[in-house]
Amino acid sequence: MERDINLIELDKDNFLVIACDSAGGIGPKKHDRIKVPAELIGAFTARVALMEVISVAAEPLSIVDALAVEYNPTGEEILNGIKGELKRIGLDSQIAVNGSTEENIETSQTGIGVTVLGRVNRDKIKIAAGQPGDILIAVGLPMVGEEVLANQEKVADLPVLQQLLGFRGVHEIIPVGSKGLAYEAGILARSVGLRLKLRDDSELDLQKSAGPATSLLTAVEKDLFAPLKAAIAKPLTIIGELAEF
How far apart are CA 187 and CA 76, in angstroms? Predict the structure, then answer.
């Protein structure tokens, strides 16, 4: 599988879904290259892993964080960011959060890893579900580094992902990472044996990194674009479509 998740069969009906994300050199410490509050880097790193799990229609069960910082104060602030993301989607009282911090060596740079475990029913999983005639929509803009901080209103987030999953004609969603929209669109098309037709006139750079999953690649029925545009308060851009060979 080319998606950024692991699927483990639990029984004839269910899969365990595992996703992770990491960040380094971004935070409040002396040698961090990009200075941001620890809570913010915790939120974004957790968001990426949660998006990977939730995008396939799985239910998150547990979060494990590996923090290469001391608990007090940096680790605690990172945890607040992780828990804040869960609260945004109503899961803060339902998911166990556990992990580890570095208490033996003083660190001068922030490092964080987050792993999310979820479960999905075989009949509900949204993988390799794109269909001929689907249009491919980028929800949110691909951004990385400082531009993410300056344009958060244009960044895809967990509430938007939940909105998308609520539309019947949304067939598949892939959080876009450092390899860009075109790369993820290729994965989506190959997974269903369809031809990818990218728009030559797209206003987006389809090769650009989307950093901490600032954009969601979405395969939807053609007539769904207008309703999505009206419902979702993020930039929506049609970048291509799926077709038969």
Answer: 37
Q: How far apart are CA 37 and CA 198, in angstroms?
A: 38
Give residue-wise pLDDT tens across range 134-169: 999 999 999 998 899 899 999 999 999 999 999 999
Residues whose CB is less than 8 angstroms from the CB of residue 137 and which lie 6 or more positions away in sequence, other chains included: 217, 218, 220, 225, 228, 236, 237, 238, 239
Q: How many domains does the chain have?
A: 2
Task: Indicate the residue among 121, 154, 175 that finishes a domain.
Answer: 121
Kind of pairing, strands 135-139 and 26-27?
unpaired
Distance CA 28, CA 188 (A): 37
Q: What is the CA radius of gyration of the chain?
A: 18
Mark whether 164 and 215 lie in a shared domain: yes
Q: Are 75 and 112 in contact (CB under 8 A)?
A: no
Domain that holds residue 67: 6-121
Q: How far apart (Å, rounded) are the C-alpha atoms in residues 18 and 26? A: 24
Cβ(191)–Cβ(242) below 8 Å = no
**Cα–Cα distance for residue pair 172/151, rounded to 1 Å:** 26
Global model pTM greater than 0.85: yes
Is the four-CA dihedral 45, 142, 86, 8 of positive or negative sign?
negative
